[in-house]
Design a protein that fits this description.
Structural class: mainly alpha
Mean pLDDT: 76
Helix content: 55-70%
Number of strands: 0
Number of helices: 7
Strand content: under 5%
Oligomer: single chain
Order of helices and strands: HHHHHHH
Distance between the termini: 120 Å
């Protein structure tokens, strides 16, 4: 009987080391590509400032918080401006400025009543109820007068 020098292949064998490496790469490679792509995106200078080319997640949240803190709604800016103006000018002048602001920016009209009421309450603290009431006029549906009344009651 003669023995063969060539190895015999077994049926049911699932492949050698090359096949195992291929399967491992097929599972690991997509994960590596996704992670490297994510890291590449975070390293792009999205801020536009040349100070640092790396943008971290904390930079993004810090920028979002600071933009919210510095950006105020137009009605809040107007209310604060008119409240400080009320310290130096009489309520009649301040109400005129409120009406001019609403005429100039119609989007402020829906906030006019709440601003006028706040001005009425502040006028009572500064001038007293009867003097503040003397400045009442039909700006924003007499909301100034209702603010005076609410502060006096």
């Amino acid at each position: 009987m003669k023995h063969s020098t060539t190895p015999q292949t077994r049926r049911g064998h699932r492949g050698g080391p090359a096949r195992r490496i291929g399967r491992t790469l097929a599972l690991v490679l997509p994960v590596v590509l996704v992670l490297s792509g994510t890291l590449a995106v975070t390293r792009v200078n999205w801020t536009g400032s040349p100070r640092n080319s790396v943008l971290t997640a904390t930079d993004v949240t810090d920028a979002a918080v600071s933009s919210k803190a510095t950006t105020r709604a137009p009605q809040d800016v107007l209310r604060d401006q008119l409240m400080s103006e009320l310290q130096d000018k009489n309520p009649g002048q301040v109400l005129t400025h409120l009406q001019q602001a609403v005429n100039g920016h119609p989007s402020l009209a829906r906030h006019c009543s709440s601003i006028a009421r706040a001005l009425g309450r502040a006028a009572v603290r500064i001038y007293g109820a009867s003097r503040a009431q003397s400045y009442a006029r039909p700006v924003c549906d007499t909301s100034f007068a209702s603010g005076v009344l609410a502060a006096h009651s």
